[in-house]
Amino acid sequence: MDWRYNLPMPHRSNRVPVDLSLNRLATARKRIGAIPFDLTISNPTACGIAYPAELLAGLADPRGLDYDPDPRGPMTARKAVAAEYEQCGVSPDPRHIMLTASTSEAYGFLFRLFCSPGEAVLVPSPSYPLFEHLASLDGIDAPTYDLDGDSGWHIDFSSLESCSADVRAVVVVHPNNPTGSFVPPDDRRQLVGLCRKRDWALIADEVFLPFPLDGGPGEGSSFATEEDRLCCTLGGLSKNLGLPQLKLAWIVMTGPEEIVEAALEGLDYVADAYLGVSTPVALALPQLLADGAPIREAIRKRCRSNLESLRSLVSEYPAVSLGPVGGGWNAVLRVPSVLSEEELCLQLLERRGVAVHPGHFFGFQSKGWLVISLLPPTDQFTEGVRLLLDGVGQTLTPPHSGSGGA
Ligand SMILES: Cc1ncc(COP(=O)(O)O)c(C=O)c1O
Q1: Does residue 406 carry a pLDDT above 90?
Q2: CA gyration radius for the chain?
Q3: Does the pLDDT at position 3 exceed 60?
Q4: Per-residue pLDDT at 321 exceeds 60
Q5: What is the sign, positive or negative, of the torsion defined by CA atoms of 194, 173, 177, 319?
Q6: Of 10, 15, 117, 138, which is least packed with CB atoms within 10 Å of its CB?
Q7: Whether the CB of 123 sits within 6 Å of ligand 1
Q8: Å from CA of 138 to ligand 1 middle
Q9: Side-chain half-sphere of 266: how many Cα atoms within 13 Å?
């Protein structure tokens, strides 16, 4: 019998997980309430970053009182997005840019454009945990391909090539969240070749491209230069401007002209059903992007300074390691796997007031990974990392035996 008929009405589709209860970590967080050292924070507006007071003045533009819907968004806004790519040496055609309300919405549009129900989009692992959910909400599969930690997170092409699903597109995250790794030029060449051979579209998520840290091969180079294969490059204000609440992102389509036109025609059809972009935000976009440099700089400065403290603190703990962090807002720590990641994170939370993400949350396959946000205010970050490292150190110390004659 179909499981849905066992549920009380109204029943839920299998796009929504059957079990929506909180996991152990989320339950503990809820019970504790305010967390003194939250190293999972991903909301830049909650980290003491200074935003210029006049930044949102453009939202009051009276032109926002007229509604003239275009599924791709106003042309003035698309030209401003195209100009952003000049710093990467690319001049995308503004007619080939589509605005969306978020990168998540952009993924949804592209999944519906490329895949019929049951078909698949390949996604990297470890990476952004939302892919699985976005795919399932669109009734498609999201099998993973591996990024190899031992080789500095290069693409494991054998895992890509051996995928037996009915793949229509492949996602790259450049730089990847949370490993911070850029897609190096060799991997990119090989990937584009494979996409051509298998007739896969390419979706390149570059929301963290403006935030290089240690850098590395591939840094600063955008997939929006890709002309050989249909490529959809994603960016958006939630990271570019550190303002997720503005709800504006974009897709830049590049590739062979005829294929791009056909893809955009389909994408117009999808976007026209939603028209999710707010006119005032789209009209304000040119000014918002022009005014965004100090915010990006403040976020970069925060992440760099926290990364430096992290590196210095980790150097005192030989059992813990931190690799290069190419770019983005997170760092990953390799810790001894004496306890399960979940148990370690629970202990850190309950005994030391430090919240940190377990690696398995991002799809790390081996044990002993922790993901740390580089966004928190510096004092809070440094003390949180100290407590975390001390907590990890304690798990390595054998418990005293025989004292006190219990
Ligand atoms: C790789 C990646 N892409 C996209 C997003 C979300 O972007 P948006 O807020 O535009 O949906 C995130 C959020 O953390 C992310 O890590």
Answers
A1: no
A2: 22
A3: no
A4: yes
A5: positive
A6: 10
A7: no
A8: 17
A9: 14
Residues 6+ apart with CB under 8 A from 46: none
125 lines ligand 1 (CB under 6 A): no
Task: Give the pLDDT confidence of 166-183 residue by residue, as tens digits.
Answer: 999 999 999 999 999 999
242 lines ligand 1 (CB under 6 A): no
Residue 104 alpha carbon, nearest atom of ligand 1 = 11
> Which element (helix H / strand E) includes 205?
strand 201-205
Query: Could you write out the DSSP letters of every residue in 62-93?
Result: GGGGS----TT--HHHHHHHHHHGGGGT----
- CA proximity to 263, closest of 237, 236, 229, 235: 229
Q: Does residue 330's CB lie within 6 angstroms of at least one atom of ligand 1?
A: no
User: Among 206, 207, 234, 251, which residue has the most ligand 1 atoms within 8 Å of its CB, making it the best to mutate?
Assistant: 207
- The Cα-based distances of 278 to 57, 96, 97, 109, 179 in angstroms read 15, 19, 16, 17, 33
What are the residues whose beta carbons fall under 8 Å from the beta carbon of 205, sequence distance 6 or more? 103, 128, 171, 172, 173, 174, 234
For β-strands 330-334 and 369-373, DSSP reports them as antiparallel
Interval between CA 103 and ligand 1 midpoint (Å): 6
What is the distance in A from the centroid of ligand 1 to the CA of 8?
Answer: 34
